[in-house]
Here is the input.
Amino acid sequence: MVKSLLMKKVIQDSRTKIPSGMATHLPEDAFLRRHAQEKILSTFFKWGYKEVLTPVFEYYDVLSPGISSRLTEKSYKFVDRESGKMMLLRPDITPQIARMVAGILTDEPKPLRLCYYGNVFRYEESHAGRDREMFQVGCELVGIESPEADAEVIAVASEAIKDFGITDFKIVIGQAGFLNGIISSLNRYKEETISMEFEHSLQDAISRKDAGLIKTLLNNTGIKGKVRNNILEVPNLFGGEEILIKALNITNNELSKEAIENLRKIYSLLCLYGLKDSILIDLCDIREIDYYTGLFFEIFTPGIPYPVGAGGRYDNLIGKFGYDCPSTGFAIDIESIIKAMEKQGDFFIDNNINYLVVVKKEDEKIGIKLVRELRAKGYIVIMDTGLYDINSSISYAKKNKIEKVIILGNKKEKYASEIDIKTGNKKIMTYN
Here is the structure.
């Protein structure tokens, strides 16, 4: 008997199992995500951003120029049955926006303020703790190459997060040009050009703040003196505004100096937006440094292991689709926002049903009329012709968080019982 029950459970599990890294969202969970999506989009609309929709999958050869090698490896690909061409489920929506701007929006006056909501698909190792389908809401500010544009997208992202009551967060900002300039300048102190492999290894060691590995790499290349000491200081460039002054003192190239000045201007603008206390500067990070051409940022809140939002400037992206145009933007992760709200313990959304109207089949005409009138007044109402007694109706209402039950009584006497589920109070009403 035990064996047969176990076998039955295995069969049921196999019939209903979903792929690893995917999730089924039941009504309450789905409602939270819909609420979060609409709340974030409403903030974007207030800043003048307009929503666009992009396809869930595209031709691989069309979209791949805008996708980094890292994301390409994580993409889900399949063959189109009609054309035989390789397709991919979108791993990122920003390249789709870039394709859109380079194509059908080329002649539109700039700047463009576009926003979106959608799911992206990326393969993640099972032990990584991340879903393979993620829901994002994001903005793209296209056509402006300025600190003002970068500050705007950070301010928009911050306001969207604050609108959920999340005030304890940090915005970590960096600049791709700073570390690129530092490492590229090493060629001036060596007879042989440093290899790309060495650059990547040094970038990775600096990002991980691994002082021992940095020293080993520099020793192997024979870099000594002040240049060596300056690079050893880079992992310490994390903190407040004072970091910009420290960075300038160890900078020996124009690219890095321009990056510092760019961050200084952005920082000043963010202070005007009231975000001074939320800003941290990180000049030793290489977060997707090949993707970003300038500012990049992530927004963290305590207790959530992944950023609730991230973005930056990617001026070369749209050009990969044949139309050179600067752009900056970000995306907010819906799952991280919901976890942050749940951690605060105050993520309550009133999605209760106001009325359950219980009607016998012979009284459907009266019941439908009553339900229509209640809905016209703005109430959320369901009608049921299968619940005939008070006890089963109350039980059903409690389980489904319905506030009140109306049971139509005797048709000839034209009365109905209204029961308040929370208080248990009952009153009799007459109707025409």
